[in-house]
Amino acid sequence: MKKNFHLLLLVAGSVCMASCNKDDDNPSPKSDAKQILSFVFKAANNKALNEDVTAEINQEDKTIAATVPFGTELTSLTPSIEVSEEATVSPAGAHDFSSEVTYTVTAENGTKATYKVIVNQADPNASDAKQILSFVFKEEDNTALNEDITAEINQDNHTIIANVPASINETTLTPFIEISEKATISYSGPQQCKRESIYTVTAEDGTPASYTFAFNFTATTQKEVLIAIYKSNPCNTLPWDIYTDDIDTWQGVRLNNEGKITVLILFDDDNEVGYGLTNLPEVIGELTSLEKLESHDNLLTGLPGTIGNLTSLKSLVLSANALTSLPDEIRHLTNLEILLLSSTSLTRIPDTMGNLTSLEELILSHNPLLTNIPGTIGNLPSLEFLNLRHNPLLTTIPAAVCELQDKNPPITILKDDGATCEDSEDN
Length: 427
Description:
The protein is built from 2 helices and 27 strands. It is mostly beta strands. The chain folds into 3 domains: about 5-15 and about 30-120, Sandwich (Immunoglobulin-like), CATH 2.60.40; about 130-215, Immunoglobulin-like, CATH 2.60.40; about 235-420, Ribonuclease Inhibitor (Leucine-rich repeat, LRR (right-handed beta-alpha superhelix), Alpha-Beta Horseshoe). The strands form 6 sheets. Strands 18-19-20-21-22-23-24-26 form an 8-stranded mixed beta sheet, with no helix packed on it. A 5-stranded mixed beta sheet has the order 4-5-9-8-7, with no helix packed on it.
């Protein structure tokens, strides 16, 4: 674990908890780690800067060099410093970087390391070019690959996506990166519980540009789809051993006689955030034999459009997630009989919901942001039960939906007392 130091630097000492065993004759040795891991002048902490400036650290020489845009006032800059676990750094606060500044890192065991920091202004005629021009995982540099993998770069959004097979150990891959002439590049490393990592390109004139990189896991087998789900959620608590070949033994997974996944249960009753899933990758659309998908009580914010490929699906349970929208491709789930979408952040339901001709049970309760539902729900020929309760912003219900109660046999509709039916166009 690393500690971040901002403005007033945090000081971490050794604290003996009350539960410590005072009679322990063999205490753990104190750490001698004493490195400055990152040194950044953040624009948020420095009025003189419009963008963050990340310094380059030479651990061998214990030197730190940063280049700020030409004309930047150097006399009062505040760095954000990240150091080794259990270490402290001094001095704190703002300093005059018009000349060399010395920082001392003290390890837990009291040993020290001294870093010299030099900040220069960029040449006024320096280039401002700061693009990542190519990002390739070359076969010759990566033994896990049998061909080069070229990532897709979006220069407008500053995103980089590399499609890699889910079965590959992506943590061993090393990219070959081409950047603008005279620019430099730094890597932040993986972000905790995030799929993304950040590459920062700094132009010759000191101005930076940050690119967000992520792997998109591809799959050609049922197992690779499951691995992609696992890897796409870095802080998941799924009880899967992804190195076990027999996926029929994986919790929540059921196969048919052809070895195709028909049931996938992705929730944990013992944890209020389930398995901590934040997204379902696009390759879930490869599970075309899937009949039951349950991923309630997780942290999902959306669904991939490939969910529409799951045309065998009969039951879809996504309640208690942070879903903000549903893809229009959901209209292709014409065999779906049960759809549970309670306790989400949905604001609307797509009109294409009316295409779910086999739907018998639709639960849309406890959605505090839901403001309307489409009248196309009234066209669902197989619907038997509709729950619209506990939706405080859903004050009117389309007439076509209310008229379902007049069918023979009538359809059960549960709604809040304050929700009224719109007038029928026939009246």
